[in-house]
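[step 3/7] fold_predict: job queued, chain A
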Amino acid sequence: MNEQPGLSDQYRMASPWPMFVALGIPIAELGVLFDVFPVAVAGLLLFCGSVAGLLRESEYVSSPWLAMGVFAVVLVGIGVAFVFTDVKLVTRGYAVATAGVVLAVGAVGGSLFLPDDAVV
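[step 4/7] structure written:
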């Protein structure tokens, strides 16, 4: 008698990435909205890194590092736009641009020091 009827090794296991994506969005929003620099940076890093991991796990991309690099360029662009648009958005723009720079450094470091088969 099988203790777990209907379950076999062919079924996929649950992915942890959606939970981190769902946490990253409100953390980033709270940090940007209330102008809390470390919270905004941490939330954006959590969100973008989780989406890159989710894209890799679902095999939309072959490596998460390129997706993280694209997110980094987008974040730096948005951050620079915030800085030069309005005086009230300068510190928020710095937070978004800083998250983009940190994400770019992580993407470059990950692509240089970790082989693609090590990342699952």
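[step 5/7] annotate
Residues 24 and 46 are 5 Å apart (CA to CA).
The two ends are 34 Å apart (CA to CA).
exit 0
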